[in-house]
Design a protein that fits this description.
RNA binding; E_motif; elongated; repeat; Putative ovule protein; 8 helices; Serine Threonine Protein Phosphatase 5, Tetratricopeptide repeat; 76% helix; mainly alpha
């Protein structure tokens, strides 16, 4: 893991949102380092954990198309479970299902989001769809 990824992870787990944002901006502007897909996923995790879901969503959408967005969408989906955001959870899951439909944990997270919101019919539907993958 690169030093910058370690810094992002540390900021994420310590709630240092402003410092993580600044580091992400400075990577390119001050140091000429092009963020990778892993850098994006880490900053999305940082923003998502701290409840800045819309900002995290915007960042995923701003990622260059050359990058694999699975890590970023996964981070956002996990944050949507933590913060019980059904709408962004559905968007994240839909993108993940298109990119890699065979990852069971994505289905479980979406089902858990629905369950925590009391949307039992959708939670059960997602579980049934997951079982079809087996």
């Amino acid at each position: 893991m690169s030093h910058l990824l370690q810094c992002f992870a540390g900021c994420s787990h310590s709630g240092m949102v402003d410092q993580g944002r600044e580091l992400f901006r400075e990577m390119k502007n001050a140091y000429g380092i092009e963020p990778t897909a892993d850098h994006y996923a880490c900053i999305v995790d940082l923003l998502g954990r701290s409840g800045h879901l819309e900002e995290a969503y915007q960042l995923v959408n701003e990622m260059p198309s050359k990058y694999n967005k699975i890590g970023a969408w996964s981070s956002l989906l996990g944050a949507c479970r933590i913060h019980r955001n059904v709408e962004l959870g559905e968007i994240s899951a839909r993108n993940l299902f298109e990119l890699d439909p065979h990852v069971a944990s994505h289905y479980v997270l979406l089902s858990n989001i629905y369950s925590s919101a009391g949307i039992w019919d959708k939670a059960n539907m997602v579980r049934r769809n997951m079982k079809k993958l087996e």
